[in-house]
Design goal:
With 169 residues, this protein is α+β, with helices and mostly antiparallel strands. It starts with a strand and ends in a 13-residue tail after the last helix.
Length: 169
């Protein structure tokens, strides 16, 4: 079982998937010399990436989230080919994307893709309000939550070496 349905009174945690999360970003039309920047607002399904222990211990007033899209939407909108989802995203071979399989009823989560390149930092109060308003879809549970955290780390970690390795002819 990859998902669970936490009780409504359970606090926010890593791996929580929330609907209708308000997001924003700056839209730049053309080059950055064409300022001013126009803000864009929308709501989206998101997953909480901030470590569960940091949330439980109150070490932060903000949390990191990533957007979640259904695989069907990505294919139908032409953002991704069905074969790519089936053959590469499901196996974790596409940089910055993480596959979520369909949840069993009563959880309403079709095959989805987490875009680890689309990150937002939000006040905890916003996410806690979504939980209080019944917008928590489900929670990704251990060990899948840790697997997601590892995929997130691999997406962003880079080890810079000073010089390329020498090779012998």
């Amino acid at each position: 079982m990859m998902y669970q349905q936490p009780a409504p009174e359970e606090p926010l945690s890593q791996g929580d998937i929330l609907d209708d999360c308000p997001l924003d970003r700056l839209r730049v039309d053309g080059s950055t010399a064409d300022l001013p920047l126009d803000p864009v607002r929308w709501t989206a399904r998101v997953i909480v990436l901030t470590q569960a222990c940091d949330l439980a211990q109150g070490k932060s007033t903000r949390a990191l989230v990533a957007t979640v899209q259904t695989a069907q939407y990505l294919v139908e909108s032409g953002l991704m080919k069905g074969a790519t989802v089936r053959d590469q995203v499901r196996r974790g071979q596409v940089y910055g994307l993480y596959f979520l399989p369909t949840a069993q009823p009563p959880i309403a989560l079709p095959e989805s893709v987490i875009d680890l390149r689309e990150l937002h930092t939000l006040p905890l109060a916003v996410l806690e309000r979504l939980v209080a308003d019944g917008k928590r879809v489900c929670r990704v549970v251990t060990p899948y939550r840790e697997h997601l955290a590892q995929h997130f780390a691999v997406t962003y970690m880079r080890i810079g070496l000073p010089d390329p390795y020498g090779t012998e002819p």
